[in-house]
Amino acid sequence: MDLVLKLREARRMRGLSQKEAARLSGVGQKTISSFETGDRVKSLKISQLERLLSAYGLTEAEFFGGSLEKAIAPWELDENQIATTQLIETLQTLPKRMRRDLLAKFQLMAETIMDVYRRGYDMDGAELSRPRDAA
Questions:
Q1: 120 conformational bin, left if phi > 0, alpha if psi -120 to 50, beta if neither
Q2: By CB atoms within 10 Å of each CB, which of 56, 107, 128, 131 scores lowest?
Q3: Where are the alpha helices (DSSP H) in the chain?
Q4: For 41, which DSSP code?
Q5: Distances 125 to 113, 116, 121 between C-alpha atoms, Å
Q6: Yes or no: is domain 3-76 CATH 3.30.9.100?
Q7: Percent of the chain with pLDDT over 90
Q8: Taking the model in full, what pTM does it have?
Q9: Is the pLDDT of residue 135 over 50?
Q10: Residues 8-35, buried b or exposed e (16+ Cβ, 10 A)?
């Protein structure tokens, strides 16, 4: 989803005008307007984004994760994106150590699956059919 759209809709979802967002964030109203129209979004500084997100009551994870996109345009997400978003949101609620352990196990599983796939087999051990020139 487009950064410009996400910035504008995050502000609107909080019920703030650009003027109110400027007052709460310390980012100028004209600057916010230029970000939301896309005119100056390439010059958006991390510190400005952090202040805007704070004013909108969002974390960086919420802004860049799928939960904001789901709230803005749920019809744009496919089943895999929704499942991934739900998994990430669930992981974020777990204690840090448990989250780290689960992520390490998930990483190992993903690496194993990719290794098996690269060797030319599916998860049941059957050889994958490949075009002759791809082998």
A1: left
A2: 131
A3: 3-13, 18-25, 29-37, 46-55, 60-64, 66-72, 79-93, 96-118
A4: G
A5: 11, 9, 5
A6: no
A7: 40
A8: 0.55
A9: no
A10: bbbbeeeebebeebbebbebeeebbbeb
Residue written as tokens 């609107």? 12
Tell me how far CA of residue 60 lies from CA of 9, 49, 50, 102, 113, in angstroms. 15, 9, 7, 22, 30
Question: Domain coordinates of the chain in residue numbers?
Answer: 3-76, 79-118
Token pair, residue 46, equals: 């991390």
Please, which residues have CB within 8 angstroms of residue 131's CB and are 6 or more apart in sequence? none
